[in-house]
Amino acid sequence: MAKKQLLYLALIILMAALIWFLSSDSKSTISLENNFAISDTASVSKIFIADRNGTTITLNRNEKNWVVNNKYEVRKDAINTILTTINQIRIQRPVSKNAFDNVIKNLATTGVKIEIYTNQETPNKTYTIGSSTSNHLGTYMFLSGSEIPFITHIPSFNGFLSPRYGIQGNKLSEKDWRTTNIFSLKAEKIVRVIVNHFQEPEKSFTLTTASMILLNNSENEVSFNPEKALQLLNAFKLLNCESYKDEKEKIEFATPLHELIVNNDTLRTYAIAGKFIKDKEDNFTVKRMHATLNNGELMLIQDYVFNKVLITIDQLQ
What we know:
Elements: H1 2-33, E1 46-50, E2 56-61, E3 66-68, E4 72-73, H2 76-88, E5 90-94, H3 97-110, E6 112-117, E7 125-132, E8 139-143, E9 150-153, E10 181-183, E11 192-197, E12 205-208, E13 213-215, E14 221-222, H4 226-234, E15 239-240, E16 243-245, E17 256-262, E18 265-270, H5 280-283, E19 288-293, E20 298-302, H6 303-306
Antiparallel strand pairs: 1-2, 1-6, 2-3, 3-4, 5-9, 6-7, 7-8, 8-9, 10-15, 11-12, 11-17, 12-13, 13-14, 16-20, 17-18, 18-19, 19-20
């Protein structure tokens, strides 16, 4: 009887030791290799992201805002999202042995690399962002310097993380990062507003602010309501497009609708041609137009946003 009790005791001690060893090993592995997060995102000065197609995104912090690829101001919601993700990302669990080979292969072939800098020449963190788990609640990632990949997540966030890094289908796009702001002018900074209605020219006008003069389409001075004129000028404080489009040929045969000149900038709008209505955003219930600013990239703008400035001369009287 005593021998059996000793045997049971030995087994219990052995099992406890094994559990402690496995638990200790797992914790030590994770604590050494899962430090994806940066606690002080205010110290982040640059973020470099690259996909397997050769597209690179460089986000630089300056005194006032963030700039993408040294060209465009970054959307505030986009930079806030990625910084929050960098701060809150956590390990969900290590990749299982059964999935190890496939995960490593996918990370090597389709993974997106990210480097995070904190006021230094070498990155503070470098890791590869892969696909989502089958339940879309985790994201495969590999931290530079570690030996195994992990499944990462943000606690209490139901979803995978790659879109929060600006990744769509393992690809990056500069236009997804740049600000959608078109006009951000204070009323006192506006010298002139010209609105030309191509389909109804008699509704066009020119408003100059130096002496507050309203001219009709025949360039004759007409009376107007000063409060309505001020309302128009104040509408340019914040005007955003919805998105940027890659296919500028969409407007080659489209019907021109408006020309809006504010100081030295010219916005032209076009009807969305029926044969091009294929994208889900073009088919959505919100009314939209195509537009270009200074003959630049094609944009998608929403009627209810720009209708406050694409007004007729009658609306100023």
